Amino acid sequence: MRPNSRFADVRTFDIDAVAAAAGADPDVLRLENLDTDVPPPPAAVAATTRSLDEGTGNSWLPFTGLPVLCEAVAADLRERTGVGYDPLREIVITSGGTSAVMPVLLATTQPGEPVVLTDPTYAGLLQRVRLSGARPHLVPLRVERGRWRLDREALEQVRSAAALLLMSPSMPSGAVLDRDDWEAVARVCDRTGAYLVYDAAMERIVFDGESHVNPCRVDGLAGRTIVIGSVSKEYRMIGWRIGWVAGPADVMARIRVAAVYNTTVAGGFQQRGAAAALTDPSGAGVAEAVAEYQARHDTVVRQLDGLPVVRAAGGWSCLVDAEAMGLDAATLSARLLERGRVAATPMTAWGGPVARRHVRLVFSNEPVERLSDLRARFDAALS
């Protein structure tokens, strides 16, 4: 078959392989996938059901999102970012947040241009950069005092970039970027003329009272930031597959075209459910969900005390350093499943040398009670 260079360095997530190996055994602790058992907002379920019953979402149009959802996204972003986005010109609804990434890359980069990401980063971001024809430039996350921190010295060395594609909290590490980090990002964007593509999927899932800084509130970033969001993480609405992109009108004109020709339209029934979640006066259970995720995270860290697990500042997962235990990540993952009955994904497709030495532990889909024997399972795997 005729080769295609775009696929030369693209790797699979490895999540599906670990899940398939785990099978349906109820004794296996499922820490490999970013699902959650914390329920979605009742208001979102009711609005989706009502739309199905009434047939109000069964349409191709409008291609770029129902006005009710575009307006809800604009109101939500105004509170988070301080920016007043035009719902019709500066917001596009997509089939999940990650489905927005490729249209954004196509609209902001040329083949071969560098895109800055962290190492580790979400494989769905990294591999899309490669598929778009752009070139990943990885900036390491470093462990300092038991927490992940952005290597700002390495970031400051960036001299050429079409975009910086960043998350906070970041998958899979749970790293949260602070104001000094975003100010360093602003300097790189100013020096290179790059866009900041900010994946805000987990923005409010932060632990330990950690303050979260939206980059649009940092001088020099609002006018060059493209925000990608979704209802999957904060609102626990994974199966709805609803996300959005917001940004300056000039680049959004290109993104709108790329998004329409990528998926045509996001599901109308689900859009009405997403609008209900965003406008739920009760807060849609976000604070309660974050408290539950922190309890699970803290259980994981407590169980693995003395092992090289890195505490997350937010998100749904944390990382354990396989190489610090004398194993590579693939071997640790295999031993955890075979000996400890723990499904956990090696980070071989999730970055460069930093990612490749780690295994991810997702705590969003297992309650504290199930996590309470994690140390015994690790001990069995390491014996």
UniProtKB/TrEMBL annotation:
Keywords: Aminotransferase, Pyridoxal phosphate, Transferase. Residues 36-364 form the Aminotransferase class I/classII large domain. Coiled coil: none annotated. One of its GO terms (biological process) is amino acid metabolic process. The keyword Transferase applies. Its cofactor is pyridoxal 5'-phosphate. CDD domains: AAT_like (cd00609). GO terms for molecular function: pyridoxal phosphate binding; transaminase activity. The keyword Transferase applies. PANTHER family: ASPARTATE AMINOTRANSFERASE. Belongs to the class-I pyridoxal-phosphate-dependent aminotransferase family. This is Aspartate/methionine/tyrosine aminotransferase. It comes from Nonomuraea pusilla.
